[in-house]
UniProtKB/TrEMBL annotation:
GO biological process terms, semicolon-separated: bile acid metabolic process
Keywords: Oxidoreductase, Plasmid
Keyword Cell division annotated: no
GO MF term set: glucose 1-dehydrogenase [NAD(P)+] activity
Protein name, UniProt field: Glucose 1-dehydrogenase
Source organism (scientific name): Niallia circulans (Bacillus circulans)
Family (UniProt): Belongs to the short-chain dehydrogenases/reductases (SDR) family.
Enzyme superclass (EC): oxidoreductase
UniProt KW Manganese keyword: no
Length: 249
């Protein structure tokens, strides 16, 4: 399905990013594993891919830095010669508080960081995608952008802004044969959700038609569809990976 497509995945040293890297490599992608600080974890993902005959490299870069992302792009081009796919996945931390307990300095970092990361990563790869008149852009959002939950206002609003950003990209980049789509998981079983109590996970599962929370593989499979040519005529979409929780939205 991927046929040697060169794919940059931000925040790919663990969780959804790592699982997506492994799945895309399994289907023939050449994968760039971006990481912010955990070199050891990123290298493990690379090794899990290369040990099975795939191609992957790990590159450190803060996705909010123009210079670091430009360096990542240059290194990718030196290694693989082109860029076909960007999966914007890097997690940006946020304050888990209700608005009543926040001030602007609590709220701003997530909103600015989320959009800045997507903006810079996209701007970094676009010249090459436009030149080859082909590209696949996928952005990892969240069901919390549509379904509010207590204490997630910073996260949900930031992801809502990301959803809008992607629609504008789809409209602007369509003439270049570049698609832009959003994949929005509900609660996912990863290291990032280890702190959530079992009772809370069971409650979410109970309200999910498919009876469980998502696995990283569920999200990776949706990404695979949107970065492959199986989705050649699909752009500007918001795809929930929520086991049916968002069917009424």
């Amino acid at each position: 399905m991927m046929n040697g497509k060169v794919t940059i995945i931000t925040g790919a040293s663990r969780g959804i990013g790592a699982e997506t890297a492994r799945l895309l490599a399994k289907y023939g992608a050449k994968v760039v594993i971006n990481y912010a600080s955990n070199k050891k974890a990123a290298q493990k993902v690379v090794e899990s891919i290369t040990s099975k005959g795939g191609e992957a490299i790990a590159i450190k870069a803060d996705v909010r830095s123009y210079d670091q992302m430009q360096s990542l792009v240059n290194e990718t081009l030196l290694k693989f010669g082109k860029i076909d796919v960007l999966v914007n996945n890097a997690a940006i931390g946020f304050a888990m508080k209700p608005l009543s307990e926040m001030d602007w300095d609590d709220f701003k970092p997530k909103l600015e960081g989320e959009i800045k990361a997507a903006f810079i990563a996209t701007k970094s790869v676009l010249p090459f995608m436009k030149e080859q008149r082909y590209g696949k852009l996928v952005y990892i959002s969240s069901s919390l952008s549509h379904q509010p939950m207590p204490n997630f206002i910073a996260h949900g609003v930031a992801k809502g802004a990301l959803n809008s950003f992607v629609k504008y990209l789809a409209q602007e980049l369509g003439p270049y044969n570049i698609t832009a789509n959003t994949v929005a998981p509900s609660m996912v079983k990863t290291e990032a959700t280890k702190h959530i109590q079992v009772e809370e996970i069971e409650k979410v599962s109970e309200f999910t038609p498919l009876g469980r929370i998502a696995k990283a593989e569920d999200v990776a499979s949706a990404v695979l569809f949107f970065v492959s040519d199986q989705s050649a005529f699909i752009t500007g979409t918001y795809a929930p990976v929520s086991g049916g929780m968002e069917m009424n939205n």
